[in-house]
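Hello,

I think I submitted the cytidine-5'-monophosphate job twice by accident. Can you confirm which output corresponds to this input? Input:
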Amino acid sequence: MSKIVIAIDGFSSCGKSTLAKNLAKKLSYAFIDTGAMYRAVTLYFLRKGITDFKGLSRQRVIDLLKEINIDFRFNESKQFSDTYLNGENVEDEIRSTAVNNAVSALSQVSEVRAQMVALQQQLGAKKGVVLDGRDVGTVVFPDAELKLFMTADPVVRAQRRFDELQSKGVEISLEEVKTNLEQRDYNDTHRKEHPLVKADDAIILDNTNINREEQLQLALDLALERI
Ligand code: C5P
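Support: Only one job matched these inputs. Its output is below.
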């Protein structure tokens, strides 16, 4: 069997990571959560007290990026990888409200994008990978053998994300979740560099009315046709 690259892009909280993780597991492929990388960089900047990303000079961003090392390590109990920032497991902290609110602004900075894209290309160079993000099929791996573009009704997305946060004990209102999603969707689709856009050859997967198992089966069938 040949190994392929599977790119899963789409709006925030569409279940991209869940699908990507499960698909990678079924195919024994590596899963690369590109959003987690932007989140880890954001966490690093926030910890340094930096919140005005636009006010940073190019050189300052480059210098800060040099201080950051991101990697993924397999977590036996979860059976999935956790995100590490300079050797520290930050899997939970990168999903915090503070990071949620800042990540799409920092993701607009060119130097950050250039470095993340290069790292993602390096991680996926040997193929046999499923990546999820916003620009995987358009910028990171434009030649990916399978590209999925995920979408769902914004109301359904907000409710799912709210339920997930509640189950983790995060105190947040449905309204706040909705506002954050709308803001991120707006930033991600309107930024100058690498905006979220469907690749011409991507297959749309609208999961408003289908469950996780159905999505996985659909994606798996599409992947197996290409392997
Ligand atoms: O996928 P996730 O919601 O974790 O991504 C967090 C944020 O990271 C997105 O809202 C987007 O601003 C940014 N991102 C990006 N390009 C990617 C993946 C994520 O700009 N490939």
